[in-house]
Amino acid sequence: MFPWIFLLFCIGIALLVAELFLPGFGIFGILGIFSFGVAVILTAVSYGIPYMCMAIAIIIIIAFIAFYFIKKNKIYNKVVLTETLTGKDFDEESIKPLLGKRGVCLTPLKPFGKVDFDGEIVEAFSNGGYIPEGKQVEVITVSGKNVIVREIKN
């Protein structure tokens, strides 16, 4: 029985190593963990609880050693994302001064389009329906990233 248990341990290790290098959704990792679980259960059934505890301890020791060597080598940087995003998201305060300003539609607003406010081009929504290109509009609401305008009737 021991050769089969040892074989399951080796298969579990091979499947977990394959999970690191092969693209997929985790099937190799799941099968590797399953292989370890079956090996531990077979150890408990065949040799008793003390040997099962030893098998679990061996798995934990192998995992710590593997993590140590993976982190020490360049493999860790290929597997784990270490970069952070430092760019700034949209600044909502930059469009707050547009409230009450008048501009000209560069594209038709149906209900979304571009409006020119004294050289500053902004994406805007109409508050109710279609506004043709070239019409004068006024900002009535600035909410989050949304600039809502209405057509100025002459």
Strand line-up of the largest beta sheet: 1-2-3-5-4
The oligomeric state of the chains shown is single chain
Helicity level: 40-55%
Provide the residue-averaged pLDDT.
84
Total number of strands: 5
Radius of gyration: 32 Å
How many domains? 2
Strand portion, in percent?
A: 15-25%
Structural class: alpha+beta
SS summary, helix count: 4
How far apart lie the N and C ends? 93 Å
Q: Which overall shape is indicated by the principal axes computed on the Cα atoms?
A: rod-shaped
Question: Could you name the ranges where pLDDT drops below 50 across 5 or more consecutive residues?
Answer: none
Give a short account of the largest sheet.
5 strands, mixed, barrel
Sketch the topology as an H/E string, one letter per element.
HHHHEEEEE
